[in-house]
Amino acid sequence: SKSDLLGPGGRGWLVPEGTRKALLVAGGIGVPPVLCLAGMLAEQGVDVDVCLGFGSASKAVGVDEFRALGATVNVCTDDGSLGTHGFCTDPAAELLGEGGYDYVASCGPAVMMKKVAAAAAEAGAYCEVSLERMMSCGFGACNTCNVETVDGMKGACMCGPVFDASKVVVF
Length: 171
Fold this sequence. Notes:
Helix content: 25-40%
Order of helices and strands: EHEHEEHEHEEEHE
CATH class of the largest domain: Alpha Beta
CATH architecture of the largest domain: 3-Layer(aba) Sandwich
CATH topology of the largest domain: Rossmann fold
Largest sheet: 7 strands, mixed
Strand content: 25-35%
Oligomer: single chain
Number of strands: 9
CATH superfamily of the largest domain: Nucleotide-binding domain of ferredoxin-NADP reductase (FNR) module
């Protein structure tokens, strides 16, 4: 039998050339994609700081893996059972306020990514976000995965799921 495949579609992380210091902010199911990005950055010799958010210690994943890559890891949990009690956007904003980041990437809950994008913009750091959308067709015909951007509606399946955060209107 014969199968036809179409892919890969979309856009992944586009780390600017010459990046020396990166801040990665992830929460919940957004942690694994950011762990892959951290591995790529580590291979390139980029200094990586990570802020991770989880509901509780029992839901925490990837912490040891990030540390094994040489990343400085800040963990926050909603209930305080691991790391700092609170949201990972707080240490992320503090780190961005200190400056020096060439690149910021975020994946996780929309409200978290919106806060990270705002803090990155205030710090003058380039930021990318990986948006979660229901994708029905995978090639831009059905419009179920549309993302509102400053350049109009864009399908996450073909133009994302990673977007320049400064272009996203609705996270």
